[in-house]
Design a protein that fits this description.
The longest helix has 23 residues. This protein is α+β, with helices and mostly antiparallel strands. The chain has one domain. The protein is globular. The chain has six helices and eleven strands. The strands form two sheets. A nine-stranded antiparallel sheet has the order 1-2-3-4-11-10-5-7-6. The chain has a two-stranded antiparallel sheet with strand order 8-9. The chain starts with a helix and ends with a helix.
């Protein structure tokens, strides 16, 4: 009788173990992309000129978006990362970088490494909000950049995409390049947002789209 009970318990434990492995198993890239395509109600296709990369074209609240799933060439072993992209302006650029030790001026791009305390003309200096300290902002349209960064709701969105490393240095996963708004999902799990988190919870992309749509609305109301 005791042996029968032991056998039954071992059998049940085996079933539980198998089921837990199935539930915890990470989906393949193909499964992930198919699920993402279904979630976004979009169209999955290869990225032209990038072997091994795919994109999903879709609409969210009437705005055209693209999700790109690409190989990260910066790693010795193959790693993947994702991008959410949408066009919001003709030629506006705004992006952040870690504050350098010295100021460098690039052609037609303004770089702010020291923000004055007092009020400034809207076209003289990029007034970086205190909550984004530690970052430089680079833009080709100072007036529009100041208007964007003066909006508390927009700044709150950007803070959702900021990471701080173990040294306390911030970085930003969001940018606008030549009118194209881009949010990067990093291979490194410590970055926000991370590709790992996205593949673990596909529905989270809806949350990111909701945040990006707030910025889309800002530009539509200009």
């Amino acid at each position: 009788m005791v042996w029968i009970i032991i056998i039954v318990l071992v059998f049940l434990a085996g079933i539980i173990l198998v089921n837990s492995n199935v539930l915890s198993r990470k989906p393949t890239r193909e499964q992930f992309l198919q699920s993402m395509e279904k979630n976004l109600e979009g169209k999955l296709r290869p990225v032209e000129g990038q072997p091994g990369s795919s994109q999903i074209d879709f609409f969210f609240e009437g705005q055209s978006f693209v999700y790109e799933d690409v190989i990260d060439r910066g790693f010795k072993e193959e790693a993947r990362k994702g991008y959410l992209k949408t066009r919001i302006h003709a030629d506006f650029s705004l992006y952040f970088s870690e504050k350098p030790r010295s100021t460098t001026i690039k052609t037609d791009v303004f770089i702010s490494s020291q923000v004055p305390d007092g009020p400034t003309r809207p076209d003289a200096w990029v007034a970086l909000p205190p909550s984004l300290k530690g970052l430089d902002v680079q833009t080709n349209n100072i007036r529009l950049a100041n208007k964007l960064l003066a909006n508390p709701k927009i700044v709150d969105v950007l803070l959702e995409f900021r990471s701080v490393d173990s040294r306390g240095y911030p970085s930003m996963s969001w940018k606008i390049m030549d009118g194209l708004m881009i949010l990067e999902f990093h291979p490194a799990e410590r970055k926000i947002p991370s590709y790992h988190d996205l593949t673990s919870r596909i529905s989270s992309i809806d949350d990111y789209l909701e945040e990006l749509t707030k910025i889309v609305r800002f530009f539509k109301e200009l």
